[in-house]
Amino acid sequence: MLELDQLVMDFSGFKAVNGCTFRVEEGSITGLIGPNGAGKTTLFNLIAGALQPTSGTIRFLGEDVTPLASHQLFHKGLVRTFQIPHEFHKLTALENLMMVPPAQPGESLLSNWFSWGRVKSTEVDVEKKAYETLEFLELTHIAHQRAGNLSGGQKKLLELGRTMMTSAKLVLLDEPAAGVNRTLLRKLESKIELLNKERGYTFILIEHDMEMIEKLCDPVVCMAEGKVLIQGDFQTVRSNPQVLEAYLGETTGDAA
Ligand SMILES: Nc1ncnc2c1ncn2[C@@H]1O[C@H](COP(=O)(O)OP(=O)(O)OP(=O)(O)O)[C@@H](O)[C@H]1O
């Protein structure tokens, strides 16, 4: 589904990503791990079109998408979850979901004027989809609560819900476990798994929580110093001496 070939991101002489090559198979949940500063977020920025690589290519569903920007990739089904924008905190959970769908007829004043009926029916469809999404995430009870008042875990679930409002095929999740309590973490994991198994979403997730990586991800790609150190199943990666060395090079050593 996604092929990265010799990707390099050079920040004024410092290569944060330094020749990354790997493939993501359709239907997989690929875990991206590595010590702090390994280049994971930069690589996500490259895949999502937020940064242009210095060199190398990115192919998505067979197409060279290297020069494309985030919004173009979004329309092709490559979606990155972001924190709920600050200005959306005053909107309810339901409204946050309803704001997502791209290219609604209602977006243009002119098309509004000429096709009022179509706009109305689209709004009804979007609301229905938003309610279904809340139900899937077991968040129906907070539909009318302001997003800013939700817990960390509920916000993460809602962010996942925002991707479900699009025609996402490949979803990039940046540290979904961060700041989420254990109970909601299990729920978040089970929803990611369901979206993958039953709805066919492919995921790449950056995560420092090794329990989540072990539970969800196959394969696991470990990066260090801008390069792919090794990829394979969790046990293979975890027991690789180079991986242990890379993590022990930082203070926490939390790979093991
Ligand atoms: N815009 C930038 N300009 C210069 N250096 C940058 C820039 N963005 C990132 N870097 C550097 O690139 C390296 C990789 O950073 P990146 O955020 O990709 O790592 P990471 O693996 O996501 O780390 P973490 O797990 O701590 O989030 C770091 O040394 C960082 O300081």
Describe the structure.
This is Amino acid/amide ABC transporter ATP-binding protein 1, HAAT family. Keywords: ATP-binding, Nucleotide-binding, Transport. InterPro entries: AAA+_ATPase, ABC_AA/LPS_Transport, ABC_transporter-like_ATP-bd, ABC_transporter-like_CS, BCA_ABC_TP_C, P-loop_NTPase. Pfam families: ABC_tran, BCA_ABC_TP_C. Residues 2-250 form the ABC transporter domain. The protein is an alpha/beta fold. It folds into 2 domains: 1-77 and 167-256, Rossmann fold (3-Layer(aba) Sandwich); 87-165, no CATH class. The protein is 39% helix and 23% strand. The protein has 10 helices and 10 strands. It has helices at residues 40-47, 70-76, 93-98, 109-114, 116-136, 152-164, 182-199, 210-216, 234-238, 241-248; strands at 2-11, 14-24, 29-33, 55-60, 63-64, 78-80, 170-174, 202-206, 220-224, 227-232. The strands form 2 sheets. The protein has a 6-stranded mixed β-sheet with strand order 6-7-8-3-9-10, with helices on both faces. A 4-stranded antiparallel β-sheet has the order 2-1-4-5, covered by helices on one side. The chain is globular and about 50 Å long. The two termini are 30 Å apart. Residues 103-112 and 251-256 have low confidence and may be disordered. It binds adenosine-5'-triphosphate. Adenosine-5'-triphosphate binds at residues 11, 14, 16, 34, 36-42.
